[in-house]
Amino acid sequence: MSVEPDPRVVEGLDAWEGLTALQQPQWPDRAELRRVRDRLAAVPPLVFAGEADALRAQLAAASRGEAFVLQGGDCAETFAESTADNIRNKIKTILQMAVVLTYGASMPVVKMGRMAGQYAKPRSSDSETRGDVTLPAFRGDIINGYDFTPEARTPDPQRLLEAYHTSASTLNLIRAFTTGGFASLLRVHEWNRGFTTNPAYARYEEIAAEIDRAIRFMAACGADVDALSAVDFYACHEGLLLDYERPLTRIDSRTGLPYDCSAHFLWIGERTRQLDGAHVDYFSRVQNPLGVKLGPTSTGDDAIALMDRLNPKGEPGRLTFVTRMGAGKVRELLPALVEKVTADGRPVTWVCDPMHGNGITSATGYKTRRFSDVIDEVAGFFEVHRALGTVPGGLHVELTGDDVTEVLGGSEEIDDEGLARRYETLVDPRLNHQQSLEMAFRVVELLRRA
Length: 450
Ligand code: TRP
Ligand code: MN
Known about the structure:
Blueprint: H1 7-12, H2 30-42, H3 49-63, E1 68-73, H4 84-105, E2 109-113, E3 127-130, E4 133-136, H5 150-153, H6 158-179, H7 199-220, E5 233-238, H8 242-245, E6 249-251, E7 258-260, E8 265-268, H9 278-284, E9 290-294, H10 300-310, E10 319-323, H11 330-344, E11 349-352, E12 359-361, E13 367-369, H12 371-388, E14 392-398, H13 433-449
Parallel strand pairs: 1-2, 1-14, 2-5, 5-8, 8-9, 9-10, 10-11, 11-14
Antiparallel strand pairs: 3-4, 6-7, 12-13
Helix pairs in contact: 2-6, 4-6, 4-7, 4-13, 10-11, 11-12, 12-13
The site of tryptophan has 11 residues, from helix 4.
């Protein structure tokens, strides 16, 4: 049976249009934007509302310490880089991290790719100047191109359609990989092939061998090992570009309620979480599980006000706070926030983003992060939650499946000079495959103590 939507609910979905929406492009041609939005409103949704509900239940488990969330992927996905190899390598990296965490901490891992939609970027300035030329800043492939030319940098609504199609093909491959055999635990060794000279890989091989033996033991005992062949893998991105998120919203026929069907999980960024702003209003009206990034200037009152707007009834799994304080500040700033929210009583899932509070510029001029700072913020996050008796629920990282050199340190000891070897990111520096695995091992140690 399908439930008719309440017309007031549908009308409310456009209330954001009357509010201030930060970080949106200046579209030169509004009529074309309108046509593109109409088209997006008619295409098939990318995810099913029931999947978003399933994820919400898993996030609720994470808020109680019964699961651990792993969100990983690019800072900014690009259309050109959305190739089979890149997608496979990222999935492999996330699966390998998940294996390490599931095995090492005996904890179910909620797997989410910052993938299949992470195309829009908030920027600190609307424009960029090189020499005597000033052009609009690059805001992500869904809006404009990275090349520093007037043609590339002019916002183009057709890019919304390209984002939709790129997202659809990425999701299609994700679904094929995660349910079609590639993600089977019987293949744990194969995910590591080609990477065996590093200490993190050697450690991974040990775990893989133990898992193999355990599976063969269970199978010999007659246990049903089918559950090991596929994984639930969810897609998430920053809910930034409302001209994209609004037309991809659908009314769920089961409940009559709206879901943003561009992804399972959306988060509101640190720069767009104003209580009276368009983003908070919009996402308060859809049923997906949501995240909000909280940086060092966030207060406990901000957090409570966000709960009032985004999860007034305190539904478990609906709201995730993704904290990004910086390694030097997390121990000092996080406790007040967590205490205030805990005293409120409505549940939230706490996730640590150890990337965005730890940006630096290398001596050689690269935008980078130190692996040691990233690890230190995660450690601080666990310490704070352990001290308060609250639950460290997950990790949100920027990573790639490749051997890039964008983050300093790790067991390969990438140094200032080493960054030049393979620095490919368009926006923020990402953990490479090996640093990602190393991170998973460190988190296991922390989870065992938590
Ligand atoms: N389906 C289980 C899970 O998602 C087991 C599993 C299969 C798994 N493949 C995996 C776990 C890859 C981690 C990584 O937990
Ligand atoms: Mn980033």
